[in-house]
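This part of the workshop introduces the protein records we will be handling. Each record describes a single protein and holds just a pair of labelled lines. Instead of coordinates, the fold is spelled out as a row of discrete tokens. To make this concrete, we reproduce a full record directly below:
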Amino acid sequence: MKKMIVAVFAVTAFAGSAFAADVIEMKKGVSFKHKAHVEAVKDCKKCHENGPGKIAGFGKDFAHKKCKECHTDMKKGPTNCKGCHSK
């Protein structure tokens, strides 16, 4: 029984990353490589503060603040307009 509970917990904990889309196409020509971000950041709560799934309040203002801030802090990823809006 104990092994079953641990297995269910493990599946639940990692289901978000297992089923998440690899590349997400967003507005204004922005392609978001989810798998690459998962591997680089390793902390889902950095973006998904309320757990797996869609990010509450995600939009232009969120992306311009949160994404750019993270790219600047990690010294990795685009921080200018054409870096994200490639199309």
Summary: The mean pLDDT is 81. The beta strands are 23-25, 31-33.
